[in-house]
Design a protein that fits this description.
Elements (H helix, E strand, L loop, with lengths): L1 H5 L8 H20 L5 E10 L5 E12 L3 E3 L1 H9 L3 H19 L9 E6 L1 H6 L1 H12 L7 E6 L8 H12 L3 E7 L6 H6 L4 E4 L1 H5 L7 H13 L3 E4 L5 H9 L4 E2 L8 E2 H18 L1
Parallel strand pairs: 2-4, 4-5, 5-6, 6-7, 7-8, 8-9
Antiparallel strand pairs: 1-2, 1-9, 1-10, 2-3
Helix pairs in contact: 3-4, 4-6
The structure holds ligand C2E and magnesium ion (3 copies).
């Protein structure tokens, strides 16, 4: 698809495009009301330490349950929300909900888990989410160490000083930061080394995509690069035991993917976690 973009084809003149556009306008207005109507929910997916097999944390992934259309993927509605300031509303809801989840798990076996929330670069530009995260941290001291914020790499975003400053502020008040989908966004190496982050997440296309088999040298290079910069690495999209094992051998610290669990609601996640812990104990 990259080639197609480079070719600069006037895709917006294609007939399906206007239909899609009209559709997205309808979705946008419905999304505007989704929060008030309680249609949004966070699902959780474990992140596992590939060496010890212990669960290290979980990623919070947004789901929209539309009364007529059923579940709508964030891959569909996040880009729509990003066209307007709706994304700020959603981002604050996601942060608030993740924080409440951390607090609900306090005093339970899941209290040691960190919750990673996804933030859009669009939100970092306006800065409102930074204020919100500052308030959250003042209200619940220590919460910043239990949270991680994943920011998707996309072309040139980290050279935007507003984005860079936002990351700097969040880092300064103790939030952990990760670059999401690493390897797909052509981020410049000079910026990468200066970002106040702790983690790189290798995009799942390298792990379980169609070319995954030939990607081993590339994956190894990304892991080495991350370690040179003192970042640790999470591999996304682990679907088979063997993929996790290979990544562990390449010194990748953490793994995430359907092999461990799909993203599931919090109550199911608790059940999954307890079962997983049982199995871990039995196996060694
Ligand atoms: P992401 O942050 O890179 O999340 C990982 C995506 O990969 C999730 O898709 C997850 O369900 C999927 N995934 C995990 N393991 C596997 C696997 O083993 N195989 C395959 N094929 N897929 C796997 P999901 O939940 O549909 O989210 C898609 C994207 O939407 C996310 O990518 C993220 O960029 C965005 N997103 C999701 N929730 C939020 C949110 O709360 N805020 C923002 N701004 N973006 C979000
Ligand atoms: Mg993510
Ligand atoms: Mg990702
Ligand atoms: Mg993504």
């Amino acid at each position: 698809h990259a080639k197609r973009e480079q070719a600069g084809e006037p895709v917006w003149f294609e007939s399906w495009m206007s239909e899609e556009y009209r559709e997205s306008v309808v979705l946008e207005s419905e999304l505007r009301e989704a929060i008030a109507r309680n249609e949004l929910q966070l699902f959780y997916q474990p992140q596992v330490n590939l060496q010890t097999k212990e669960v290290d944390g979980c990623e919070a992934l947004l789901r929209w349950f539309h009364p007529e259309r059923g579940m709508i993927s964030p891959a569909v509605f996040i880009p729509i929300a990003e066209r307007s300031m709706l994304i700020e509303e959603i981002g604050m809801w996601v942060v608030q909900e993740s924080v409440q989840q951390v607090r609900r798990w306090e005093g339970t076996p899941l209290a040691s888990l960190r919750v990673s929330a996804n933030l859009s670069v669009k939100e970092l530009v306006s800065g409102r989410i930074v204020e919100f995260l500052t308030e959250v941290r003042n209200r619940y001291p220590g919460i910043e160490q239990r949270m991680e914020l994943e920011i998707t790499e996309s072309f040139g975003v980290f050279s935007d000083t507003r984005v860079f400053d936002a990351l700097q502020t969040l880092h300064g008040i103790g939030y952990r930061l990760a670059i999401d989908d690493f390897g797909t966004g052509y981020s410049s190496l000079s910026y990468l080394s200066r970002l106040p982050i702790q983690r790189l997440k290798i995009d799942r296309s390298f792990i379980s995509g169609p070319d995954a088999c030939s990607n081993a040298p590339l994956i190894e290079t990304i892991i080495r690069l991350a370690h040179t910069l003192k970042y640790d690495v999470v591999a996304e999209g682990i679907e088979q035991a063997e993929q996790g094992e290979n990544l562990r051998k390449l010194d990748c610290e953490y793994g995430q993917g359907f092999y461990y669990s799909r993203p599931i609601p919090a109550d199911e996640f608790e059940i999954w976690y307890n079962r997983y812990q049982e199995k871990l104990k039995q196996s060694g």
